[in-house]
Amino acid sequence: MSGHTCLVVMYHYVRDSAATAFPEIRALAPELFARQLDWLQGQYSIIDLPRFEAALNREASLPPNAVLLTFDDGLIDHYETVLPLLQARGLRGTFFLSQDACGASPRLLAVHKVQLLLARLGVEAFSRAVLQACAAPGIPRTASPEVFGVAPWEDEDARAIKHFVSHQLPFVEAERVLEELFARHVGESDAFARRLYLNPGMIQEMAAVGMTFGHHTRSHRMLARLSPGEQADELRSGVAWIRALTGQATVPFCYPWGGPHTYTRDTPRILRESGYSLAFNTVRRRVKLGRDNPYELPRIDTRDLPPYTAAEPPPAEFFSREDA
Ligand SMILES: [Zn+2]
Question: What is the CA(317)–ligand 1 centre distance, in A?
Answer without folding.
Answer: 27
